[in-house]
Amino acid sequence: xxxxxxxxxxxxxxxxxxxxxxxxxxxxxxxxxxxxxxxxxxxxxxxxxxxxxxxxxxxxxxxxxxxxxxxxxxxxxxxxxxxxxxxxxxxxxxxxxxxxxxxxxxxxxxxxxxxxxxxxxxxxxxxxxxxxxxxxxxxxxxxxxxxxxxxxxxxxxxxxxxxxxxxxxxxxxxxxxxxxxxxxxxxxxxxxxxxxxxxx
Length: 200
Hints:
Elements: H1 2-13, H2 19-41, H3 47-66, H4 68-93, H5 97-110, H6 113-118, H7 124-141, E1 147-150, E2 157-162, E3 165-171, E4 181-188, E5 191-196
Parallel strand pairs: 3-5
Antiparallel strand pairs: 1-2, 1-4, 2-3, 4-5
Helix pairs in contact: 2-3, 3-4
């Protein structure tokens, strides 16, 4: 009640206001919310997000033109409510077709073998890639514990020769010089992870 009393006193002491700015401020806020919702469903590369920000700033400016006290309260409310609105928007966006498509694409590009096997019934091409990745991982796993030579300098990625095969590898320490003797220590993301042999 005290806040309302302060606002009423400030309103009474201030010069007459043009009511149109109040309606413009609220209309621009509504426009910003509509644009924000549209950004969830229409891929515009961020154009609608920029328009949302412009509309919100114009709404705040209109409220300050209407009344400074009302503008300050309006700005404080928007600052306090924005994180909640953004959280709600993110939760809604995660259930949109665009978000599901992006998640599925990431899964197809970088899914684990188990993920690929679970998607076999959904898409034959994903299943084929999953089987190929499983076969490659199994073949590489057989080389763990073997020794070889760095064919190129690994910075940290390069080529090694293990059992006469030239293979992609990643250096454990970040750098291995060409010609160095290496040991295969594990399979990491479809590549051999190697460690330079220490001089005995």
